[in-house]
């Protein structure tokens, strides 16, 4: 159970009349540089009382801070299993050598469409996330993944425009309207559309836009997992144990090709790679209460922010969010984030 310490805050420029004209800008996994915060505020997003979350009720447009207290329920497992059928694993395998992949990083890349273009082989729990204003004008796009019930996990910057992250998407604050399309391929929407009723980011991300806090949760208007199945989740007490492990990132890029000059439409693309290193801002003692950034050599581009970074068996260990130099990276699940997400399922 979460303890609600509601306190209403000033809306951050989300009224339609205040929106900046940004056109059909894509929320980006590759254009956002890793953002750190001043040393004076490099701290865990969790206080002694719990994790501070900035929530928006999408129906009333009210925003408030709530505290999710630490869980002490006696559980010993650090993992929730996936309910996605095993046969979908093969649809994420590399295609035949004759298939031409789309490249971004380096001269030889391996990103390819999930199921080799067959929508029936798209992973249902991978979702296209669309941000619009109240009149339906496209403001941004991203990826999300279903983890159970009505809960979709994404990157914080997919649903929240923090002035400090330099993305400048829709003029600041929470997205006006968020819609979620599982298994979508271009105009095909076999599972329909789900509308966000609540969105959540850590209060630290809303304040500072720092990459280690860049996780968002979308709660939609019905039980989406009943149609899609759900990703599993796992956190680790030893972040270095993930280094060298193979993971997959699959999502909805806006552009493909080495020069990002090919319009991808709305399609699921995927690639496997290895986690190369981990890092934590402001945590010299290695304390696990501090969120950690991990990096990989998997190619991602605009629109893939919010995709699961997952191991075999569709078990997510983090969220794809950004790039730094020649590495792409994301936020790794630790106990704080794992417990936060788990309490909504």
What does this structure look like?
By secondary structure, the protein is mostly beta strands. The chain contains four helices and 21 strands. The strands form four sheets. The protein has a six-stranded antiparallel β-barrel. The radius of gyration is 18 Å and the shape is globular.
* Gyration radius, in Å: 18 Å
Q: How are the strands of the largest sheet arranged?
A: 5-6-7-12-11-10
Number of strands: 21
Helix share of residues?
Answer: under 10%
Largest sheet: 6 strands, antiparallel, barrel
SSE pattern, N- to C-terminal: EEEEEEEHEEEEHEHEEEEEEEEEH
Strand-residue fraction? 25-35%
- Give the termini distance in whole angstroms: 11 Å
Dominant shape? globular
> Which regions are unreliable across 5 or more consecutive residues at pLDDT < 50?
1-34, 36-42, 96-108
- Mean pLDDT score, rounded? 79
Structure annotation, total helices: 4
Summarize this structure as a short list of keywords or feature phrases.
345 residues; mainly beta; 6-stranded antiparallel beta barrel; 4 helices; 6% helix
Secondary-structure blueprint of this entry?
Elements: E1 51-57, E2 63-68, E3 79-80, E4 112-113, E5 126-132, E6 138-148, E7 151-154, H1 156-159, E8 160-161, E9 173-174, E10 177-182, E11 194-202, H2 203-208, E12 216-220, H3 225-228, E13 232-234, E14 246-251, E15 255-256, E16 262-263, E17 269-279, E18 292-296, E19 308-311, E20 315-324, E21 327-332, H4 335-342
Parallel strand pairs: 13-20
Antiparallel strand pairs: 1-2, 1-11, 3-13, 4-17, 5-6, 5-10, 6-7, 7-12, 8-9, 10-11, 11-12, 14-17, 14-19, 15-16, 17-18, 18-21, 19-20, 20-21
